[in-house]
Specification:
It comes from Streptomyces muensis. This protein has 279 residues and is an alpha+beta fold. 55% of the residues lie in helices and 17% in strands. It has 3 domains: 35 residues, no CATH class; 59 residues; 108 residues, Protein of unknown function DUF881 (Alpha-Beta Plaits).
């Protein structure tokens, strides 16, 4: 404490009555000391609050990040400035050479692009051609399978039912019916449970008929796929199949239908001698 403060304190102690307690005397002395202390201005209080600085860990990290970002931007700007300066300081011949190299590179990239586009188009065309070839192969296989009797078929056609109670229907009559139907455009024929194909044969077996060695019991039912408007008239022509069967006292019924299912199948048979002549 300074001499000035000690003198003020002594003077106050003399002026205070002796019965004043020590605590009150001390408070009076502190108040007098504060009154004697110099008052701080607003600027001094602001400076006292800012210094010494109190930096937290989060503030320090943010400051470091901002410094790094600013340094990176400065380096990038300096690099771009160096490149621009190099071009500005280049000779005319160097600039022409640089432009020619850029043009050549652009042309090479354009040629490469056109080559890749051509390969893409070729691959697409090749894929389309291969897909079309596969589609045609599958369709051809299906058509040949129908003719060979190896796959089931359905479509418009007729159903012809022959009732032969006296057993007078013979194999040649049914063969005539098959030939008339084929001539009228039949695409698939089934007699009871036997598929009729190119090598089908019919024989008489007692009072019944056998188709490819399979005995056909009455009634004989033909399921035929084709154009009904052509198939039915071909059987009903004068002197044709229907009249011949009726002369033998058989009853013939023909029904048209929009959907005839021929589902009797034949196993594929490999020819013994015939081979394809295409190379």
């Amino acid at each position: 404490m300074s001499n000035h403060d000690e003198t003020a304190e002594n003077r106050l102690r003399k002026e205070l009555p002796e019965e004043v307690p020590a605590a009150e005397a001390s408070e009076a002395v502190d108040g007098a000391a504060e009154e004697q202390a110099p008052r701080l201005t607003g600027r001094q209080r602001l400076a006292k609050g800012l210094w010494p600085p109190r930096v937290t860990r989060a503030q320090l990290i943010v400051a470091l990040l901002l410094f790094g970002l600013g340094f990176g931007l400065a380096v990038q700007v300096a690099s771009n400035s160096d490149g621009d300066s190099a071009l500005r300081g280049a000779r005319q011949e160097d600039l022409v050479r640089i432009l020619d190299e850029l043009d050549d590179r652009t042309q090479r990239l354009e040629d490469e692009k056109q080559g890749l586009e051509k390969q893409r188009d070729e691959l697409e065309n090749s894929s389309n051609q291969a897909e079309e070839a596969r589609r045609q192969t599958v369709e051809k296989e299906r058509q040949l399978g129908i003719l060979a009797g190896t796959v089931a078929a359905q479509g418009p056609g007729i159903t012809m039912t022959i009732e032969d109670t006296k057993g007078t229907v013979e194999a040649d009559m049914l063969l005539d019916a098959i030939q008339e139907l084929r001539a009228a455009g039949a695409e698939a024929i089934q007699v009871n449970g036997v598929r009729v194909v190119a090598d089908t044969y019919l024989t008489d077996s007692g009072n019944s008929v056998s188709v490819d060695g399979n005995k056909i019991n009455a009634p004989v039912r033909f399921k035929v796929i084709g154009k009904p408007q052509d198939l039915e008239p071909a059987l009903n022509i004068p002197g044709g199949v229907v009249q011949t069967l009726e002369k033998e006292q058989a009853t013939v019924t023909i029904e048209r239908s929009d959907k005839i299912v021929v589902d009797a199948l034949r196993a594929a048979k490999r020819p013994d001698y015939a081979r394809s002549s295409s190379q």
